[in-house]
Write a sequence for this structure.
């Protein structure tokens, strides 16, 4: 979408496609093949959730170029926000979600400020370290449930409690709303000053500064925004699984998922996270469903090989793959014409 | 990294999304054409840090199903002498891997019910997985049989469809403290202080909490409280902390590899308490005694089963032969055998209820006392909330690589070696 | 009135002295050339003015305000914008988007920023490549991009660091035209050049650096005859001979 | 005081093993700017090599550590040939994610092949032996591992700094193209460096079964700690990695004992953050 950004319209044909896509998604549960409690609906919920998570990461990791492995911290804070509101205080999750998002943004700014002074691998390892510190900190912090975690009671279902019992349709539409919020925000950013500034910082910090871009402020803002959105996803994750504990939400594994999905799909692009989640999540869920019961970790072996292949062969992600195929096809057409 | 996005790319993404969701969907969960089949799901951590235990549990359920489905007149176990239940219904297992993660476990539980159409679930070893997974079952009004998860909280939720066979860490803690009191009386052991070492996870933390409660009720003083990160590269500071506090007795909750590391580190530091009692898992892993050799001796723990219990539970021996074919010769342990019991008791209840109706079967499970030759004490009965009120375990001590029964006295077969022999006198 | 005043700038990197007590002024709406041989400290001086380095000593006043050691983006926002000698395109962004980043400095509204970017792209003759990724441009294209991007920020003072180096003479000519055009719009320019051709014809004033010291500050006509300048550029020997020839005498 | 010394010495001993694990990672990082995420899994594979040699043919870990080193050398070279080769020159993240895939693959392959059971070698030469100096107890296996670590790291240091091969490696690390120009086969250097980096962790893993249980998850924590040591020591500095390895071991032990055992890794990671916030390129970095 960058290439055509020469035109002035803020609402382009591309956005029309997005709207169409969301409408299709919204209609899907009405088709019988997606019965209200099917595994397929579960997979779709996960795709939407992980695509949103990846898109949240994409703000700072893709657009702004700061590869953080620490996003599970923010995801976890969001999850704990919702979890504690319901489990500890017996309230609805909503205030917890808001507080969680704000807390995540604050924590993001505090820990990112010193980290942004680090470069390359030093930064990456610092974010690893932060995840481990938070993970272990939460494991011993009794106020948040410590190692025991938080278990949701069964309470009244509905939007008020953001909880549904038998049917997954409610969760599906909630995930869709989160998806729309996060993708919409990123789409908006992409076409506005802040979006250009983020990419400028990614491409060259000194250059950006010479053009009047306060790169530190851009990075911190992007990080805060990204963290708040990750927290929103985390809150949904807690509501969906009805349990929060540190290994579940604040672990390197979770962090890696943010990164992997985005990179596999195509970092710094709007479609990348969705594409990555659409491939990786069904793969993960269905390989586990097919082979997981064998107990040999076959699903994970395949998963590992696939990651290697994908990363090595197409570092631009699947977006790059599609682009290459597109190029190849148009070349072919051009040849035929000649 | 930014590309000119064509409409093509967009539609390609949509296609990938839909293919991902659609293609795999149908075809899953198609059942065998056979009519008289009861599908039961198993949900265990088949990969991840506790995969060993999970795989053994799965094998135990498979063993039980083999007994139920086929005629085994040589076994003195209910349902062994007939083929199937309810006049020819056979049980078919559908296995799933929780990876030891609550979110995965919950998703798999839902898939097993909704997609695979299982009738009931057995699982799921980790208490942290059993909690959300059993919630799924409860909300669907389906039965969840839990063999070995030990968290007492599981059966304090007033659930109607949840049944747990193993003794809880609460009862185990009381039993441990009883053992110490008994030692003080009988042996003038003079045990006054307690140290706790446990992995900082749902399992360890919960056990330690119960241990503290039981200890303070009995007037014992907890002088060292040492949680550690599971999968640690060493346990030096943990053991050093214990050594410095030098408690008379240590209660431990450590799984597999951590347990062996703990023992070896204590040996290296040339320290041992007078007595050490462990919650299930690490201590009762049959591999421990073999691999640690004499170092494993004189440590104690609660055991629901060990091959040396054959005198008490004569029926197990032949069942174990089947189990061993699935585990490469590893015998039952106290966790896995509970899963076999869970399967057997469920089948007995279905047989007795006479219908495949979850509510009826759950009522039947609650209402009766079940014969269970694979359980210590031989009986199983469920209290409100689903706890097996007849759950027993014995405090044993490893002597010469064998689990010797020490307490309660009426079950004992050996005199306790007290205190633990120093490392250099073995 | 002077738009930029540089007072006694000294910049040391450890033992190495890159600039030593350099002072000069740049008048509003003038073109000032900053020349000197390799390693004379031109780029360092630029870095000190634009905030990339903090000078060890000395002061920089811009528009009457002390901007010494301020952050680059603050200085850029005040209107003193520079280009880089070693081009730094934002590689994975298109040429247009590169310029747009500059345009956003003074305009947060998309429409205005887009218009400004278009204008600067036209001015620098980049229309035909505006949709390309900046990393794919030729070196000449990248130099022009540097300029377009800086221009888009609507600066008061534009500091060009060797935008003409490595260009063909026609390209140099074109650039000169653009610079003349800019001055007529009221812009002040400070130009670092290694190549003197062309610069001499448009500059109002030339500042010469050598070995970190300012050795001359004068109009172009006088600079070309300045001994020290010739010595700096052509070496002592040549300068000596030049002097001798001038004096008509001979030494050894 | 005695306790303090005991804790300190235990920390130093385990720190030296971290240092050896980190040294291999450090070499790879320094020469090709690649973080090998599968480093911990190399360690795990090495432990399996040593375990199986001990279990099947009764070779003591002290001997099979050499075999493990050779094996992981091969694994490293193979990794380079099949994976890393394609990631050189691309953003650092690419190699990191690719090796993350490799880590997932290796871990689960071992689980698939060897089952998740933990395995212990009983009756090793060193197993369980200790000796006492005053009131301080030294565990022989750990001591041996530490000595081995010291020897290997010193050899590695000498290799890099005092041999023609080492100079070629340094030249390649500084500027690959320039090194090519002066006739260095940099591709070969890369293979060898990845192999040698692997061999270091292979040797560390080879001796570990004499005091640590082997299972598929055993490498993860070592891997993480190695990252921390390397980054804390500074880009490609082997003495830096070695010192920070020991520092990490000591901090871990002291924090574990004097604060609380659950905080020992928190202290290690906190130490890393503190160091890089003060010196963004690590202790020995530039």
């Amino acid at each position: 979408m960058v290439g055509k950004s020469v035109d002035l319209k803020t609402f382009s044909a591309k956005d029309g496609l997005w709207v169409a896509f969301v409408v299709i998604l919204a209609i899907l549960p009405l088709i019988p093949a997606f019965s209200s409690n099917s595994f397929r609906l579960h997979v779709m919920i996960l795709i939407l959730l992980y695509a949103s998570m990846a898109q949240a990461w994409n703000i700072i990791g893709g657009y702004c170029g700061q590869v953080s492995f620490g996003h599970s911290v923010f995801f976890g804070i969001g999850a704990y926000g919702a979890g504690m509101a319901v489990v500890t205080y017996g309230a609805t999750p909503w205030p917890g979600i808001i507080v969680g998002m704000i807390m995540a943004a604050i924590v993001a700014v505090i820990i990112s400020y010193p980290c942004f002074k680090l470069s390359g691998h030093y930064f990456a390892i610092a974010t690893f370290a932060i995840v481990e510190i938070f993970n272990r900190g939460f494991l011993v912090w009794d106020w948040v449930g410590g190692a025991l975690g938080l278990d949701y009671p069964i309470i009244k279902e509905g939007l008020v409690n953001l909880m549904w019992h038998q049917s997954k349709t409610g969760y599906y539409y909630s995930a869709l709303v989160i998806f729309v919020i996060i993708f919409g925000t990123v789409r908006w950013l992409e076409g506005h000053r802040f979006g250009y500034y983020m990419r400028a910082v990614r491409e060259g910090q000194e250059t950006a500064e010479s053009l009047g871009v306060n790169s530190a402020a851009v990075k911190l803002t992007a990080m805060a925004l990204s963290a708040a959105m990750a927290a929103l996803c985390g809150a949904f994750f807690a509501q969906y699984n009805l349990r929060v504990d540190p290994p579940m939400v604040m672990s390197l594994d979770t962090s890696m998922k943010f990164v992997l999905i985005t990179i596999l799909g195509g970092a710094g692009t709007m479609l990348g996270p969705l594409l990555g989640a659409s491939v990786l999540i069904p793969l993960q869920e269905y390989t586990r469903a097919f082979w997981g019961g064998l107990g040999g970790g076959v699903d994970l072996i395949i998963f590992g090989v696939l990651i290697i292949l994908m990363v090595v062969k197409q570092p631009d992600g699947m977006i790059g793959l599609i682009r290459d195929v597109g190029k190849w096809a148009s070349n072919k057409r051009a040849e035929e014409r000649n | 990294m930014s590309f000119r996005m064509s409409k093509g790319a967009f539609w390609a993404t949509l296609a990938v999304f839909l293919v991902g969701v659609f293609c795999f969907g149908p075809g899953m969960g198609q059942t065998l054409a056979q009519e008289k089949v009861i599908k039961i799901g198993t949900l265990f951590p088949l990969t991840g840090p506790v995969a060993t235990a999970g795989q053994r549990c799965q094998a135990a359920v498979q063993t039980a199903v083999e007994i139920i489905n086929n005629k085994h007149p040589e076994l003195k176990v209910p349902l062994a002498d007939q083929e199937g239940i309810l006049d020819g219904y056979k049980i078919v297992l559908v296995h799933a891997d929780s990876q030891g993660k609550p979110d995965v476990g919950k998703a798999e539980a839902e898939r097993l019910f909704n997609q695979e159409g299982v009738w009931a679930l057995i699982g799921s070893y980790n208490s942290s997985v059993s909690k959300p997974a059993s919630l799924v079952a409860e909300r669907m009004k389906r039965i969840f049989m839990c063999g070995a998860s030990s968290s007492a909280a599981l059966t304090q939720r007033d659930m109607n469809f949840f049944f747990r066979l193993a003794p809880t860490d609460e009862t185990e803690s009381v039993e441990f403290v009883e053992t110490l009191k008994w030692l003080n009386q009988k042996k003038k052991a003079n045990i006054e202080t307690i140290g706790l070492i446990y992995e900082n996870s749902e399992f360890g933390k919960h056990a330690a909490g119960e241990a503290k409660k039981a200890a303070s009720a009995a007037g014992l003083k907890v002088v060292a409280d040492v949680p550690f990160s599971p999968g640690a590269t060493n346990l030096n500071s943990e053991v050093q902390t214990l050594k410095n506090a030098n408690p008379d007795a240590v209660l431990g909750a450590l799984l597999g590899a951590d347990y062996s590391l703990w023992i070896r580190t204590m040996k290296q530091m040339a320290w041992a308490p007078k007595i050490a009692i462990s919650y299930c898992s690490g201590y009762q892993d049959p591999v421990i005694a073999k691999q640690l050799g004499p170092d494993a001796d004189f440590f104690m723990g609660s055991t629901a089963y060990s091959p040396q219990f054959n005198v008490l539970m004569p029926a197990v021996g032949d069942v174990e032969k089947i189990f061993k074919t699935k585990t490469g010769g590893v015998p039952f342990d106290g966790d896995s055998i509970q899963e076999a019991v869970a399967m057997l008791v469920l089948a007995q209840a279905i047989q007795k209820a006479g219908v495949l109706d979850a509510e009826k079967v759950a009522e039947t499970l609650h209402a009766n006392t079940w014969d269970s030759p694979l359980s210590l004490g031989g009986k199983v009965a469920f209290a409100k909330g689903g706890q097996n009120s007849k759950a027993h375990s014995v405090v044993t001590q490893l002597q010469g690589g064998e689990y010797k029964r020490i307490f309660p006295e009426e079950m004992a077969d050996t005199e306790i070696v007290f205190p633990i022999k120093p490392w250099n006198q073995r | 009135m002077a738009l930029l005043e540089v007072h006694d700038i000294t910049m040391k990197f450890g033992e190495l002295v890159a600039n030593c007590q350099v002072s000069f002024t740049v008048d509003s709406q003038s073109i000032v050339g900053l020349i000197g041989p390799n390693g004379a400290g031109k780029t360092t001086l630029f870095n000190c003015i634009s905030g990339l380095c903090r000078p060890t000593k000395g002061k920089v006043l811009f528009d009457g305000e002390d901007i010494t050691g301020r952050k680059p983006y603050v200085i850029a926002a005040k209107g003193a914008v520079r280009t880089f000698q070693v081009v730094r395109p934002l590689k994975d962004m298109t040429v247009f988007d590169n310029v747009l980043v500059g345009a956003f400095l003074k305009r947060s509204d998309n429409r205005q920023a887009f218009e400004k970017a278009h204008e600067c792209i036209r001015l620098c003759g980049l229309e035909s490549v505006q949709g390309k990724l900046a990393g794919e441009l030729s070196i000449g294209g990248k130099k022009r991009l540097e300029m377009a991007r800086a221009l888009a920020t609507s600066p008061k003072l534009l500091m060009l660091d060797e935008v003409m180096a490595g260009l063909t003479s026609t390209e140099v000519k074109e650039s000169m035209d653009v610079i003349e055009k800019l001055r007529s719009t009221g812009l002040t320019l400070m130009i670092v050049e290694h190549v003197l051709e062309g610069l001499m014809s448009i500059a109002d004033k030339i500042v010469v650096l050598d070995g970190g010291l300012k050795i001359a500050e004068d109009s172009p006509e006088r600079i070309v005859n300045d001994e020290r300048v010739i010595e700096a550029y052509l070496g002592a020997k040549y300068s000596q001979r030049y002097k001798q020839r001038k004096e008509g005498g001979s030494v050894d | 005081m005695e306790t303090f010394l005991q804790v300190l010495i235990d920390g130093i001993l385990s720190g030296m093993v971290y240092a050896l694990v980190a040294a291999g990672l450090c070499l790879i990082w320094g020469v090709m700017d690649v973080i090998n995420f599968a480093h911990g899994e190399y360690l795990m594979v090495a432990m399996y090599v040593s375990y199986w040699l001990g279990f099947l043919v009764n070779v003591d870990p002290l001997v099979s550590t050499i075999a493990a080193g050779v094996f992981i050398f091969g694994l490293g070279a193979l990794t380079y040939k099949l994976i890393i080769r394609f990631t050189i020159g691309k953003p650092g993240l690419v190699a990191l994610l690719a090796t993350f895939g490799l880590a997932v693959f290796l871990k689960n392959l071992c689980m698939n092949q060897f089952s998740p059971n933990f395995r212990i070698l009983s009756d090793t030469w060193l197993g369980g032996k200790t000796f006492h100096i005053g009131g301080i107890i030294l565990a022989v296996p750990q001591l041996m591992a530490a000595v081995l670590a010291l020897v290997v790291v010193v050899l590695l240091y000498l290799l890099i700094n005092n041999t023609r091969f080492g100079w070629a490696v340094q030249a390649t690390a500084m500027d690959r193209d320039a090194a090519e120009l002066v006739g260095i086969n940099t591709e070969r250097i890369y293979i060898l460096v990845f192999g040698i980096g692997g061999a270091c962790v292979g040797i560390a893993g080879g001796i570990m079964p004499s005091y640590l249980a082997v299972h598929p998850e055993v490498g993860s924590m070592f891997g993480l700690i190695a990252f921390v040591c390397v980054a804390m020591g500074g880009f490609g500095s082997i003495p830096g990695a070695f010192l920070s390895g020991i520092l990490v071991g000591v901090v871990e032990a002291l924090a574990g004992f004097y604060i609380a055992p659950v905080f020992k890794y928190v202290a290690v990671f906190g130490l890393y953050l503190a160091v890089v916030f003060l010196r963004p390129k690590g202790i020995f970095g530039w």
Residues 37-166+311-381 of chain B form a domain with the Rossmann fold fold (CATH 3.40.50.2300). The mean pLDDT of chain B is 86.
